[in-house]
Amino acid sequence: MARLIDTNVNGGTGAAAQKPQTRTAAGELEQRLLACRRQTEALIDGLSDADCTVQSMDDASPAKWHLAHSTWFFEEMVLAAYLASYRRFDARYAYLFNSYYENLGPRHPRPRRGLLTRPELADVLAYRWHVDRALQRLLQRLDDGGRQAGAARAAELIELGIQHEQQHQELLLTDLLHLFAQNPLRPVYRDAAWAPHECSAEPEPMHFVPFDEQRVAIGHAGAGFAFDCEGPRHDVLLRPFALADRPVSNREWQHFIDDGGYRSATLWLSDGWQRVCSEGWQAPLYWTQRDDQWLTMTLHGEMPLDLDAPVAHLSYYEADAFARWAGHRLPTEFEWEAAAQRQIASPDEPATVHANGVAGITGHFADSRRYRPEPLRLGGSGPLRQMFGDVWEWTASAFSPYPGFRPAPGAIGEYNGKFMCGQFVLRGGSCATPREHIRPTYRNFFPPHARWQFSGLRLAEDR
After folding, report:
1. Chosen domain end from 163, 181, 199
2. CA–CA separation, 88 vs 225, rounded Å?
3. Which of 178, 236, 335, 371 could form a disulfide with 331 if both were Cys (CB 3.0 to 4.6 A apart)?
4. pTM score
5. What is the DSSP string of 226-271?
6. What is the share, in percent, of the chain residues with pLDDT greater than 70?
């Protein structure tokens, strides 16, 4: 779908066209904002209005809703407060596309988002372009000196909106996968865009990398964006432990299945075993056995299971049960972060965070457009492999506040803080995560039964 917005909001020979080439802070922010907005719209290329409207389960949202909600966020959090001349595209959208912000009024029930056949997709795209033009007007004013009250705060909220939309880019993909998996035709979202690369010819044996007892600083510090739940930075004492050098593979998960892993109640937490029994879990989500072969549904259609790729679409309960079956455990999020920091930076200094990501992070992310986990590649640096990208890795840590955490006042304070109960932390990003969105301190979180994300696991053990 073509992008229709004119990035020169002042006309072909106006002030925007006459700017000097020197890139200002506001100009860089505008560039990143528009790139993010275009990328979201690129994700729906080739989809029909129906593809973008249907909701496959309560936990998922239609693609059209993701497009509108990420736009509503900019409208409510930024434009309504910091652009006096702003006029809403449609006042009714405040009710339709609020997600969970109690401070901002009532909202359409989440399980019924798929009933919103109106506004049509074209109307939602027009809404996005209306908001984009207003954001450019606001950024132009910031670029002209930024002397008006609240300029710094407006810029901070635009950055938050970019990060928020990147989260919804990933959710759009994972929700679409869940939708297509319900269709017997097994639709293809994108043709497989496999780039040639060298993988190991034989299955890689799993090794454990030891870490001595240490006091480590955990959480975001210094320059660059981070969500509020990534701080405050604080010290944690880690006992000696070891971390597997790679995630658990589909081949290893098949051994777990063959050994009766889904039939052995003693491996499972009580709530997890209830899920196994009540929902009939026999394998990870999207796995299907046909003619003695395992297949899996992907965004590239149904494909034979790649046995040497990291296993994905697991709940916390499944990850915990496998670790127990294997004689190991899941790492804490602090062990994971300390190991990741040591992998890419000095253990005594936080990784350098830039607007376009973290220096030193490599991995298989959404930017590749290969939306399924891949086997280990040959080469690479550091003893730990696939720490970033491919699959989110469940940790043993509940999503709870760090010491000294305080949610921000107002609606923004509802972003993370009120979900710090009944969730577990995942680390590292996935093949559906934008590359620039991830960092070692990033704390993703989901309830323990969630399976539709690209979620896997890495084993740990005490030493």
Report:
1. 181
2. 28
3. 335
4. 0.91
5. --GGG-S-EEEEE-SEEEESSPPBHHHHHHHHHTTGGG-GGGS-HH
6. 88
Count of domains observed in the chain: 2
* CATH code assigned at 356: 3.90.1580.10
Is residue 425 within 8 A of residue 398, CB to CB? The reply is: yes
Does 193 have pLDDT greater than 80? no
Is 261 within a domain?
Answer: no
Q: What is the domain extent for residue 81?
A: 16-181
The length of the chain, given as a count of residues: 463
Question: Does residue 439 fall inside a structural domain?
Answer: yes
Question: pLDDT, tens digit, for every residue of 225-262?
Answer: 999 999 999 999 999 999 999 999 999 999 999 999 99
| C-beta of residue 340 within 8 angstroms of C-beta of residue 442 | no
The CB density around residue 96, as the number of other CB atoms within 10 Å, is 18
Same structural domain, 231 and 97: no
Rg (CA), the chain: 23
Asked if 241 and 212 count as a contact pair (C-beta separation under 8 A), the reply is: no
109 shares its domain with 226: no
Q: Which position has the token pair 């803080």?
A: 417
| Residue 2 predicted with pLDDT over 80 | no
Whether residue 145 has pLDDT greater than 70: no
Beta strands at 424-427 and 392-398: parallel, antiparallel or unpaired: antiparallel
At residue 203, the pLDDT reads 73
Q: What are phi and psi of 234, to 5 degrees?
A: -155, 160
* 283 inside domain: no
Of 46, 60, 16, residue with least CA distance to 369: 46
Cα 302 to Cα 186: distance, rounded to the nearest angstrom: 6
Dist CA 437 CA 392 (whole Å): 13
pLDDT in tens, 325-360: 999 999 999 999 999 998 886 544 555 554 455 667
Question: What is residue 120's predicted lDDT score, i.e. its pLDDT?
Answer: 97
Based on the fold, state whether residues 125 and 222 are members of the same structural domain.
no
Residues 16-21: contacts with CB under 8 Å, at least 24 apart: 16/140, 19/143
CB atoms within 10 A of CB 263: 10
Q: Is residue 191 part of a domain?
A: no
Cβ atoms of 296 and 303 within 8 Å: the answer is yes
pLDDT (tens digit, 9 = 90+) per residue, 407-438? 999 899 999 999 999 999 999 999 999 999 99
pLDDT tens-digit readout, 57-103: 999 999 999 999 999 999 999 999 999 999 999 999 999 999 999 99
Please state the rounded mean pLDDT for residues 176-184: 98
